[in-house]
Amino acid sequence: MTAESNGVVLSTSGIHKRFNALVVLDAIDFSLRSHEAVGIVGPNGAGKTTLLSVLAGAHPPTSGTIHFRGADVTGLPASERCRLGIVRTHQIPQPFSGMTVFENVFVAATNGGQLHREAAHARAIEAISLCGMMRLANRRAETLGLLDRKRLELARALGANPSVLLLDEIGGGLTDGEASELVATIRQLHASGLAIVWIEHIVHILLQVAERLICMDAGRIIADGEPRAVMADNAVISAYLGGSVH
Amino acid sequence: MSRQSPIRVVRWSGLSIGSVAVAVALTILLAAGPLFLGANAIDKLTTLFIYVILAVTWNALAGYGGLVSIGQQAFFGLGAYGAVRLADAGVSVYPALVLAAVLVGLIAWPISVFMLRLKAGEFAIGMWVVAALAHLLVNLDNLVRGETGTSLIALNAYAAETRHALTYWTALGAMVGLIGILFALLRSPLGAAIQAIRDNEDAAASVGVRVMRTKQIIFVLAAFGVALAGALWLATTITFQPRTYFSVQWTAYMIFMVLVGGLGTFEGPILGAILFFAIEAWFGATGVWYLVGLGAAALLFALFLPKGLWGWVDQRLGLRLLPVGRWLKIDETAPMGTSKSTESGST
After folding, report:
1. Hey, are the CB atoms on B205 and A102 less than 8 Å from each other?
2. What are the DSSP calls for A46-92, one per residue?
3. Side-chain half-sphere of B219: how many Cα atoms within 13 Å?
């Protein structure tokens, strides 16, 4: 059974991540099929963001391997994984604050997307337009509010031309109207063929996109499957909701 | 009406095309300088060109690359030392100035592998250590004779007037060449990547920027420019005393010029160098008080005009004479939807 034959694009096997004595990820086996949209939920400190960072190459795992399209990418730094198509957003937006919105996304298109000139311009404009930021294209990122910084995170990730998009709490702090806009955008991306891994606390937003849900607790995956079944799982209820369901 | 894409990427404006034209005209005028300027003016202008080189290279490193170094005197001294060595080995003296800078650039590459692993303050201080180390190593060379120093005696082969003109032209060429290289570099996609690293290194890596390699390019280019300035300074003063060349005052001057002119703006440091040159000409003879004045001015700028003179102008008037950025121009009247773009006005 090869990874390609069952459509798996990104997978981990036995991922451990320790920060000194603290075990943050404990034997994570995870796989993502191409065109799949997976949601990840779990209480604070479950290891969700760390898993995303390990997948994106921002942190090397303490042990275990990561495969992308059948190749071992465990040793590749974040920049190279991005160039392969694994692109993340950050929970706390990390804009290039001295540059304009357009320049932020342009950097992603020319580096991660490896595009040149007109193709890079077109890619950046498309990403900015998709995230509804055209009016802000010439604004320096440092002048943006939190919401627009979050939009910029997504636009910049899209500029890098991903095939796997890793989203870290991109919907936090949105109003209902803004959240449904975001859901529509991400559905559109998913429909265009992107595989998506989305960490989110606001479960009802997540369930509008995710075909599969993973619940993490204390560095482990405690449930993985059809979203409604996962949310009804007893282990999930006690871990994620602290057992205090009314 | 001609069919036009509704969204364009704009890089030039009428004003910036005009200012480049003025800069080219000024360069041609300056190139003819030795034909109509006196010896004193030629020497003064040579000094100014060297100051401009120091300012624009430190700004490229710190203002665009985010690499604040207080050890650039390492390359200033090595550039001068390299010229002394090459001339002693029989290389014709003016080519030796440029060749010395190239060699220092080559040496800067392995140095960058170690130094660029350091962050922020560690890098700044680390570079000072590199400068101190380079100073000590150069002092060991018998040719230099310790702090007694040596001279670029090969220059005596030229008559004074010829020598001054040749040094002037070399300095002018070096300044215009470096400004041109930096302008082209910062306007390129690589320049955008450099600024992204300055603003957020981890985020830059997350969108595919090869951080180390990109930083190395700006580090080596800055080292080359400062080394060229050091070699040119040697050509103006002839004597090489390690203590003078490896002095931290050179980096202090660079910081002053860039802070006053405008850190991270392309035009600012050139303005800062001209101001520094004028201040030195008027107050340089007042000794200690001159240095106190420089320090106080830098402090006031850091407190009240942190983006320097040009940063203030840019903020207030949006004046961009030599723009390195990219702006989207959206034609509101045209139908939206297609996102085709064309680059307008590129050279």
Report:
1. no
2. SSHHHHHHHHHTSS--SEEEEEETTEE-TT--HHHHHHHTEEE--SS
3. 29
Rounded to whole angstroms, how far apart are CA atoms B254 and B252? 5
CB contact A103 to B (< 8 Å): yes
DSSP B156: G
What is the rounded average pLDDT of the residues A12-40?
93
- Judging contacts by C-beta atoms under 8 Å, the chain B residues touching residue A104 are 196
Give how far Cα B47 sits from Cα of B60, B104, B160, B256, Å.
Answer: 20, 21, 17, 16
The β-bridge partners of A25 are A17
Mean pLDDT of chain A: 91
Q: Does A106 touch chain B (CB under 8 A)?
A: yes
Provide the 10 A C-beta neighbour count for residue A211: 15
Complex ipTM = 0.92
A96, B196: Cβ pair inside 8 Å?
A: yes
Range of the domain at B97: 33-292
Rg of chain B over CA atoms, in angstroms? 21
* Domain annotation covers residue B17: no
Decide if A107 touches B, using CB distance below 8 A. Answer: yes
Q: CB contact, 8 Å: A113 with chain B?
A: yes
Contacts of A103 in chain B (CB under 8 A): 192, 195, 325-326
Residue A246 has pLDDT above 70, yes or no: no
CATH of residue B212's domain is: 1.10.3470
- pLDDT tens digit sequence for B210-257: 999 999 999 999 999 999 999 999 999 989 999 999 999 999 999 999
Structure tokens at B341: 């773009």
Per-domain residue ranges of chain A: 1-6+32-85+162-246, 95-160
Asked if residues B311 and B263 have their Cβ atoms less than 8 Å apart, the reply is yes
- What's the CATH number for A1-6+32-85+162-246? 3.40.50.300
DSSP alpha helices (H): ranges in B89-159? 93-115, 120-139
Query: Is it the case that residue B120 has pLDDT exceeding 70?
Result: yes
Cβ A82 vs Cβ A166: under 8 Å: no
Token pair in block for residue B10: 């704009």
Domain count, chain B: 1
Check CB contact under 8 Å for B325 and A103.
Answer: yes
Selected residue of B10, B212, B265, B328 to mutate for chain A interface (largest A Cβ count, 10 A): B328
pLDDT tens track for B272-320: 999 999 999 888 888 788 888 888 888 888 888 888 999 988 888 878 8
For residue B314, what pLDDT is reported?
84
Q: Answer positive or negative: Cα dihedral of A110, A114, A120, A126.
A: negative
- CA dist B182 and A12 (Å) reads 44
